[in-house]
Specification:
The complex is a heterodimer of chains A (113) and B (115). Chain A has 113 residues and is mostly beta strands. Chain A has no helices and 11 strands. In chain A, strand 9 and strand 10 form a beta hairpin. Chain A is globular. Chain B is an all-beta fold and 115 residues long. Chain B is built from no helices and 11 strands. In chain B, the strands form 2 sheets. In chain B, strands 2, 4, 5, 9, 10 and 11 form a 6-stranded mixed β-sheet that branches. A 5-stranded antiparallel β-sheet of chain B has the order 1-3-8-7-6, with no helix packed on it. In chain B, a hairpin with a 4-residue loop joins strand 7 and strand 8. Chains A and B meet through strand 4, strand 5, strand 9 and strand 10 of A and strand 4, strand 5, strand 9 and strand 10 of B.
Chain lengths: 113, 115
């Protein structure tokens, strides 16, 4: 059973471009969580999704950020018009049930130049 | 608002020492607590998960305890090895139904075990 997969592992974008980060949960997991780790800071919760539904987006910045988890395919975290402050490691986690143990992917390291 | 604090921020020990990492949280209404390991440039590996009704969990040389009423958890590592060098993160999940399943993380303890 493959673990949580994230791609790309490293992403470089210029200011103003769009960034798309993908997360494939573990097989059988229908709950996905996104976290962000800014340089020299701890991980912060962004959004929690189930298939086709956003359950909790209280940690998402109000503008430029969106997330989806379609019926088929990976979960996508989308950042529009990136700025330097978006440079961070973005981690995805999945779990089989709502309050289950969360299993983390290797992360996507976004660098905005 | 839940806050999680980990002490110390960094720790350097010689190989073979037993050590304790501390985690405290401000809101005792938690569902569970997890300890993770993070290697540089890598993702998180779950080490131990303690449910709110449990007092401790053990896995190999690792033992985690939970005192929910005082808002504290400790991670005990026995006979430390250089391969244990990593950042150790503590995370809590709130117990309220409306909060979803988010984890609140501490900022970690960076452990170096010297050969």
């Amino acid at each position: 059973n493959a673990g949580v997969m994230q791609n790309p592992r490293h992403l470089v974008r210029r200011r103003g471009q769009e960034a798309r980060l993908r997360c494939s949960p573990m097989k059988g997991h229908s709950h996905v969580y996104w976290y962000r780790q800014l340089p020299e800071e701890g991980l912060k919760f962004m959004v929690y999704l189930q298939k086709e539904n956003i359950i909790d987006e209280s940690g998402m910045p109000k503008e430029r950020f969106s997330a989806e988890f379609p019926k088929e395919g990976p979960s996508i975290l989308r950042i529009q018009q990136v700025v330097r402050g978006d440079s961070a490691a973005y981690f995805c986690a999945s779990s089989p049930i709502r309050d289950g143990e969360q299993y983390f992917g290797p992360g996507t390291r976004l660098t905005v130049t | 608002k839940q806050e999680v604090t980990q002490i110390p921020a960094a720790l350097s020990v010689p190989e073979g020492e037993n050590l304790v990492l501390n985690c405290s949280f401000t809101d005792s209404a938690i569902y569970n607590l997890q300890w993770f390991r993070q290697d540089p440039g890598k993702g998180l590996t779950s080490l131990l998960l303690i449910q709110s009704s449990q007092r401790e969990q053990t896995s190999g040389r690792l033992n985690a305890s939970l005192d929910k009423s005082s808002g504290r958890s400790t991670l005990y590592i026995a006979a430390s090895q250089p391969g244990d060098s990593a950042t150790y993160l503590c995370a809590v999940r709130p117990g309220w139904e409306t909060s979803g399943s988010r984890l609140t993380f501490g900022e970690g303890t960076q452990l170096t075990v010297n050969p």
